[in-house]
Amino acid sequence: MSDNIEKLRHSTSHIMADAVMKLYDNVKIGIGPAIDNGFYYDFDIEDKISEDDLPKIEEKMAEIIHKGHEFKKEVVSRKEALEIFKDQPCKKELINEFSEGEVISIYLSGDFVDLCRGPHIKKTSDVNVKAFKLLKVAGAYWKGEEKNKMLTRIYGTIFNTPKELRKYIHNYELAKKRDHRKLGKKLDLFSIQPRNAGAGLVFWHPAGAAVRREIEDFWLKEHRQKGYEFINIPHIAKSNLWKTSGHLDFYSENMFPKLELEEGREEYILKPMNCPGHILVYKNNLHSYREFPLRWAELGTVYRYEKTGVLHGLMRVRGFTQDDAHIFCRRSQMNEEIERVFKFTLNILKTFRFKDYKVFLSTRPHKYVGKVAQWDLAERALKKGLENIGLDYEIDPGEGVFYGPKVDIKIKDSLGRMWQCSTIQVDFNIPDKFDMDFVNKDGNKERPVMIHRAIFGSLERFFGILIEHYGGRFPLWLAPVQLKLIPISEEQFEYCDKLRAGLLKENIRVSVNNKDEKLSKKIWQAREMEIPYMAIVGERELESGKLSIRKISEGDIGSFTVDDFIQKLKKEITLKK
What we know:
36% of the residues lie in helices and 25% in strands. It is an alpha+beta fold. The chain folds into three domains: 3-162, Threonyl-tRNA Synthetase, Chain A, domain 2, CATH 3.30.980.10; 190-470, BirA Bifunctional Protein, domain 2; 483-574, Anticodon-binding domain (Rossmann fold, 3-Layer(aba) Sandwich). The strands form seven sheets. Strands 11-15-16-23-20-19-17-18 form an eight-stranded mixed beta sheet. Strands 1, 2, 3, 7 and 8 form a five-stranded antiparallel beta sheet that branches. It has a five-stranded mixed beta sheet with strand order 25-24-26-27-28, sandwiched between helices. A hairpin with a 6-residue loop joins strand 13 (259-260) and strand 14. The longest helix has 21 residues, at 3-23.
């Protein structure tokens, strides 16, 4: 996000807050930042605001914009700030969090005042009234904490020109239709059942599991060809393991509570990550430099206690499968392995029709383990790898994980939205914490370098992205059902059942619609389920031994013999079309 558009969006959030306070009584305000593609503001308000109220708020915002109020900054003392916001509990809480001597500033526009660091545009009339729109209303816990009060959050967006807004709104409306939760239900792909099983836990239905299996099989084949070996680890481990890894100190708020066993009072924890388990596999044997690099991969399920307020379909869940891999190598092999991972990752993503992406290098955070020199070396290695293969990247300062810097790859979907996906991390610190070593060529012990990487990140989240990216219309190789056999009448039922059995032996995912319904309805049902191909079978097809084929994206494409059509399908599947 450019500085100019960020200022515009943040300023518009102030205008929205001003409008809400003028329209409703006794409004308490929270925060209103600029975000990707827009802005929001949180309100503690007695009145119930719905999306039907948004036009009224937009109208009041337009009035404020036309008045041309200047955005004026003032630096105030803590005492002054507390007096200004004496009737605003959220603002008072934020003021009391400022450290001694830290600058406290407010921004005024007309009679509206907000606690804010800025910066802002010069005046409200710099906002184009035809280039902003309020989008939706949602609930949000104050500061994202479930123990805090639920506030009303209003989302909006603004651009420099009406044309940009129209384009965004078009994609926004399309995105609502493509919402993976809606399509997941319509196509019977998955369910989440909070009442029966718990929030954030995914049940894969046969259709969704078929897509997942295809993704997994592709992943396994590609990794095997790239020299990876596969391992599997338990889903729980003693709490001491997570103490050694640092997760209990740095990640405990995202971990499920400890499981206490009566016998011996041992404490176990559901794994939030796979890396400590992979390290235990490594440490079970002695290793020589001649073995390196070791590339170990696992589709490993992990469990993280995400707060209820942030759970969102498949995009944010509590139990998910990571396509995890860890590479153990000598320092001299590190740069080559990093470059291999980058190239491998981008090739995998291209197979799923993701060709546009942004790359971010996240550096040392405020809370970290290890030595600064090791962090610097790891950051330089990631930079060199990116530069050697010609990848442009941006620095994301302070956003590395506690044990090492990382490269994040954000992919752009068919609607132009960016999604965090792949992560590659270089780690000198965890090998130190676990006292990992190998015997070098001089016969001495040496620390390995550990590279963490995930290409999909989470199978659940990646699947949700794919649903929206394809709009539910998966390419043939991924489609849950690749071919629907549609008999015109009961006389063709038996023939279609035999055809199905033969096609299944050819590894074609096929089903038959043997319902006593009109042909037009059967075709409509297949289209509604986004099935790539339909084979119409009537008396003529029964006599000729051919199939009348319809393709969902093209309509009628002609008649084929069964063998010829099988070869056509196999070729298209192999090419991942």
